[in-house]
């Protein structure tokens, strides 16, 4: 087993801005809302925190804007032990944000990618050594497609396996699908993927998360199902991110796929029993205790 597992994430860093309201405003209407809060987010950053809490060395290639959110988010990653050599602060650009309007029966979200759109192939090229020296690369679809194409090709050329979490869902070009080692959709993303004529390319690489039903994956050409762990559900936000970050850390450590899936399934279950995306992510000790 590899005691120094290295994960490299090329992805998004956002500040989530959430306002709770009893009444969703209609077109042209202003309403008085309830509480407002900010939380670190972005699928890339969330998955980085999950992997770091599980004890992996995590390098991040990404970008924030030159603003207060950027400073706070960088500090948050430092506190979590994520290595920031590959993160640049882009002048005159805002940090990525997700503005979330939350009411009892309706959620509305606007993502403004901001600096995440500056995670370019040139930025990845600059930090290519972080990719070459990692045991696994983990990506999502919140950075530009040309960066996804470039990074997957770079990792493949250097023999570094790639986990692709296809969220938020977009169709991927054939050259990306051919280069990745594991594809981790949830059930909704899987349904969208099945419409793709290139679905055959990834069938053998699937690790499908199925909420409380657990995970299905393909190992040596055979589909296997792992049940979900029974937990008291408090907040499912970030379950998918916890799963992906943990899976990356475990595979980087040298675990077999079935073992890595089991640990990620447990970590994700623990995360839904607590509030918050990053706030609910367990540590390695939490997961070890849970699995004893
Ligand atoms: P989210 O968008 O809420 O972060 P997702 O839609 O990306 O999640 P899911 O398939 O819903 O992904 O959940 C990911 C994993 O989290 C599941 O495969 C499972 O391991 C765990 N999980 C999610 N919900 C539950 C639950 N209610 N009980 C136990 N485990 C859960």
Description:
This protein is an alpha/beta fold and 292 residues long. It is built from 10 helices and 13 strands. The chain has a 6-stranded parallel β-sheet, sandwiched between helices. The longest helix is centred in the C-terminal third of the chain and has 16 residues, at 257-272. The radius of gyration is 18 Å and the shape is globular. The mean pLDDT is 96. The structure holds adenosine-5'-triphosphate. Adenosine-5'-triphosphate binds next to helix 8 and helix 9. Adenosine-5'-triphosphate (ATP) is lined by residues 186, 209-212, 214-215, 228-229, 231, 233, 236-241, 243, 265, 268-269, 272.
Characteristic key phrases:
292 residues; single chain; 13 strands; alpha/beta; four-stranded mixed β-sheet; globular; 25% strand; binds adenosine-5'-triphosphate; six-stranded parallel β-sheet
